[in-house]
TrEMBL record:
The chain crosses the membrane at residues 20-40, 83-103, 110-128, 140-164, 193-214, 250-268. It is found in: Cell membrane. PANTHER family: ABC TRANSPORTER PERMEASE PROTEIN MG189-RELATED-RELATED, LACTOSE TRANSPORT SYSTEM PERMEASE PROTEIN LACG. This is Multiple sugar transport system permease protein. Residues 78-268 form the ABC transmembrane type-1 domain. InterPro entries: MetI-like, MetI-like_sf. The keyword Magnesium does not apply. It comes from Clostridium grantii DSM 8605. Gene3D superfamilies: MetI-like. One of its GO terms (biological process) is transmembrane transport. The lineage of its organism: Bacteria, Bacillati, Bacillota, Clostridia, Eubacteriales.
Length: 283
């Protein structure tokens, strides 16, 4: 009876796990499927068919996708997003890795205070300091230029420092000492020894930052109102207004904008998991 009770309990637990997994999967995949189905529907099908179902095969249309792809602002959005992502990530990697190396390897006065200030800066909600940040961007002459989001993405998010510190703390100090004894400068030690060993951290950071920047709508919308400075996310807003907006066109635009993020995640999801796991364990 005890064995039967144990097996019964195990089966019930497994059934609950499967049920919970299916519910979570439906919650995640459901909106994507609804958006995909809407993108290939006509306006009449949007009204007459369930959002959870595809239209009849003969009624499937790709006109919505074609219209979005032919939009004159789409090339600007792709160009602007690419420029912002590449430049922002480059400086995040360079500044973040160097700062983390200095904080982790060198002992100097107020080192812990500086690190605490970085932490406090991350804890303060962005919207509380938005007015001050807006004034700073205007004062620097960056408002309504690509420099505004680039400057913000480089300066306001300090996640890279914590990621790099986790990895650098795993590297033995003896590596630095051996190179210094061989006549290398600290710059050479970092460039030729430390930074190449931070490849997993760099891969993780690039993927996380790229996805976050591509998906951000708030900063580009607020700081770049110029039509030709639209990014992939603010490009969507043209299909959400009362004049030219429709659910099927907006869904088609969402699918097109979602493709780069989806491709990045599918291609590099292994790097994300390995990078986070490697940085979480200290030998």
């Amino acid at each position: 009876m005890k064995n039967m009770s144990f097996y019964t309990r195990t089966k019930i637990e497994n059934a609950i796990k499967i049920l919970v997994s299916l519910i979570i999967t439906a919650v995640v995949i459901g909106p994507i499927l609804i958006t995909l189905f809407a993108a290939v529907k006509t306006s009449s099908d949007m009204v007459n068919t369930s959002p959870l179902l595809l239209p009849a095969f003969k009624n499937i249309t790709f006109d919505n996708l074609k219209e979005v792809l032919s939009n004159r602002l789409l090339p600007y959005a792709i160009r602007n997003t690419t420029i912002i992502v590449v430049i922002s990530i480059f400086f995040n990697v360079m500044i973040g890795s160097v700062t983390a190396y200095i904080l982790e390897r060198f002992k100097f006065p107020f080192r812990k205070v500086i690190f605490l200030l970085f932490f406090v800066g991350m804890m303060i909600p962005t919207y509380i300091t938005e007015i001050a940040r807006f004034k700073v961007i205007q004062g620097l002459g960056l408002y309504n230029t690509l420099g505004a989001p680039i400057f913000i993405y480089i300066a306001s998010d300090l996640t890279q420092i914590y990621i790099y510190r986790q990895f650098i703390s795993k590297l033995p100090v003896s590596l630095d000492e051996s190179a210094l004894l061989d006549g290398c400068s600290y710059f050479t030690v970092f460039r030729k020894i430390i930074f190449p060993l931070l490849a997993p951290a760099t891969s993780t950071l690039i993927i996380i930052k790229a996805v976050a920047i591509i998906n951000d709508m708030y900063i580009p919308y607020l700081y770049m109102p110029n039509t030709k400075l639209k990014t992939m996310t603010t490009f969507l807003m043209g299909y959400a207004n009362a004049e030219s907006g429709s659910w099927q066109k907006l869904s088609a635009a969402v699918i097109i904008v979602m493709i780069p993020t989806f491709v990045i995640y599918v291609m590099f999801q292994k790097n994300i998991m390995e990078g986070l796991a490697a940085g979480a364990v200290k030998e």
